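Structure tokens please, single chain.
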Amino acid sequence: MKSRNFLFAFGFLSCISTGPVLADETQTVTIDNFSFTPNVITVKPGTHIVFKNQDDLPHTVVIPGMQLKSAMMDTDGTYEAVLEKPGDFRYFCGVHPMMTGEIIVKAE
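Here you go.
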């Protein structure tokens, strides 16, 4: 019985002990005063891009090159996008199309 418990514990620990886990990278883009800041960002594939609306009016994020569109974000609302493929992706606010930005995804 002792050896069975040991094997169970060893098997359980070997499943959860896989070495250091690298945290996902995150880049934040703030929406305020009818603009995206920073306006252009360069990220690695797989980076989490968080858009945070700090404006008094609702906004959306539309990334046509990736067929992504957020729901309407009120003040303090957020939208997260993860772009996996390298390229230059222009985006805009669907409510205020004059608000634009660009995400450059570069593999290392």
